[in-house]
Design a protein that fits this description.
The chain has 2 helices and 8 strands; from the N terminus they run αββαββββββ. By secondary structure, it is α+β, with helices and mostly antiparallel strands.
């Protein structure tokens, strides 16, 4: 009986590892595809028309339309329109109801702590994010961070100025659905 139970546990462990490996590889592939799509969109729109209206720019749902450079982590990640599970599997999700860089209000982006924001525990106040849009690049410096409960939506609000709000699950090393969110508030860097 004990041998049967130990064999069953070994089989369950092997299946769990196989499923995790499959999901990890699938996620990495989706992010690579999104990054390629975003870079293609950026190269096509490298020099927007002189009369380009930044305020009216709106990407399609699930479109990888931009990239985020995180120098501290030496990463360039795709930004995808939407923050549901499908969008977050492809890259950093942009909250549809928030604005985009250059549009003068709160920009909300989210990502999984165990995919795009792996190593996010190294992020500190003073670090920067650069968002590369089809109409230009925008750099933001982290001025403050916060930890809120998973259901706290008060971080999504009008702020009266351009602020990049980047969120991910917290604690970073938590296994399963994390009970909190890490929030970084980054403000435009002016030359």
């Amino acid at each position: 009986m004990i041998k049967w139970i130990s064999n069953l546990l070994i089989i369950a462990g092997v299946i769990s590892i196989a499923v995790f490996g499959y999901l990890f590889i699938k996620n990495e592939q989706q992010q690579k595809q999104s990054l390629a799509q975003a870079e293609e969109n950026l190269s096509k729109n490298n020099a927007p028309e002189e009369n380009f209206d930044i305020q009216s720019y709106k990407p399609e749902m699930y479109e990888a339309f931009a990239t985020m450079d995180i120098p501290k982590l030496d990463k360039t990640l795709p930004i995808v329109e939407g923050t549901d599970a499908d969008a977050l599997d492809k890259g950093i999700g942009h909250l549809v109801d928030s604005v985009l860089p250059g549009q003068g209000e709160q920009i909300v982006m989210s990502g999984h702590r165990d995919t795009v924001f792996r190593q996010f525990d190294k992020i500190e106040i003073g670090d920067t994010f650069t968002i590369n849009m089809p109409y230009g690049s925008y750099t933001y410096e982290i001025k403050e961070t916060d930890i809120v409960s998973e259901d706290d939506t008060s971080v999504i609000r009008e702020m009266g100025e351009e602020v990049l709000v980047v969120t991910t699950c917290y604690p970073f090393s938590f296994v399963g659905d994390a009970p909190e969110r890490f929030v970084a508030y980054a403000y435009p860097v002016t030359d």
